[in-house]
TrEMBL record:
Protein name: Cell division protein DivIB
Organism (species): Apilactobacillus kunkeei
Statement: the UniProt record of this protein carries the keyword Transmembrane helix: yes
Region listing for Disordered, in residue ranges: 261-295
Principal subcellular localisation of the protein: membrane
Organism placement in taxonomy: Bacteria, Bacillati, Bacillota, Bacilli, Lactobacillales
Domain of life: Bacteria
Record's keyword terms, sorted: Cell cycle, Cell division, Cell membrane, Membrane, Transmembrane, Transmembrane helix
Transmembrane regions listed in the UniProt entry: 37-55
Length: 295
């Protein structure tokens, strides 16, 4: 009797273990199926979400703001960007360098562009323009001369010639760039007083410049001496009693503009020449003394 009970219990335990093993095996199979299914389901869900995003308004440019454009109109930048509200944001993402290069090639005034998305789909464009230096005249149109020595390919509608000079007859770009570098180093009050810088080479002086001032005077000067001698302009101008031509090629002398075409100004030129020489010498000594003190 005891052996029958023991045998019954043993069979029951074996059946229980088999049942547990079967349950575990079933669970494991379910887990394996779910795991294998997840490799298919998750990518499909992600793909579905991407498709939903692509067709939703969130994937479209909601608005475009332009800042830092300075003297370049926003309408010009917007036209050159070739982007509109409602365009896909992927027209910008991955294509920033291409857009940047296209705009720079189309508009010489633009140094660089920086693109940034805020609030998912609002496009902000920061413009860095080249500094404007002056104007060049071609026919009856004016074009901006920039700090990099280039002349823009877009005519200026309303040139602000009350503040910037016309820099004319510089047909060589490297020469124009050199002139710009010299011009920007002048004191601001002298820069603001310059109306026209004209490259006027002669056989004797191949780098001769004629500088027309807003106060009515005209300066004849050599390009390689431009910064050194133009810095004395204030001292020279205060001595003049009338609008004059100031010749700073070799030495320094002046004569009234009204007498420019007359041939009997030898006495006037000679007397003024001495005064201007003294002025240049005094200013040169002051500059030297100031430099020594600083050192």
């Amino acid at each position: 009797m005891k052996s029958k009970l023991f045998s019954s219990k043993k069979s029951s335990n074996r059946a229980s273990r088999i049942s547990d093993d079967f349950v575990e095996l079933h669970k494991q199979k379910i887990k394996n199926k779910m795991k294998s299914s997840s490799y298919i389901i998750i990518p499909l869900v992600v793909l579905l979400l991407i498709l939903i995003y692509l067709v939703s308004p969130m994937s479209r440019i909601s608005s475009i703001s332009i800042n830092g454009n300075g003297y370049i109109s926003q309408s010009d930048i917007k036209r050159e960007l070739q982007l509109d509200e409602g365009d896909s944001i992927f027209k910008v993402i991955g294509h920033k360098n291409k857009i940047n290069q296209r705009v720079i090639n189309d508009d010489h005034r633009v140094k660089s562009l920086d693109f940034k998305f805020t609030g998912f789909n609002h496009l902000s464009v920061a413009v860095s323009p080249y500094k404007e230096i002056g104007y060049e005249t071609r026919g009856n149109k004016q074009y901006l001369i920039l700090e990099n020595g280039k002349v823009t390919n877009i005519a200026v509608k309303n040139p602000n010639d009350s503040k910037m000079p016309y820099i004319v007859k510089f047909n060589n770009q490297s020469l124009l760039k050199s002139m710009i570098e010299k011009y920007v180093k002048l004191p601001k009050d002298i820069r603001d007083n310059i109306r026209v810088i004209s490259y006027s080479p002669t056989k004797v002086y191949p780098d001769e410049l004629h500088v027309y001032m807003r106060d009515g005077n005209r300066v004849i000067i050599l390009m390689h001496d431009f910064n050194d001698k133009m810095s004395f302009y204030r001292s020279i101008a205060t001595q003049l009693k009338t609008k004059s031509v100031i010749n700073l090629e070799v030495g320094a002398y002046s004569f009234p503009i009204n007498d420019e075409k007359k041939s009997s100004n030898t006495t006037t030129k000679a007397s003024t020449k001495t005064k201007l020489k003294e002025t240049l010498n005094k200013d040169a000594k002051k500059t030297t003394t100031t430099t020594k003190k600083r050192n």
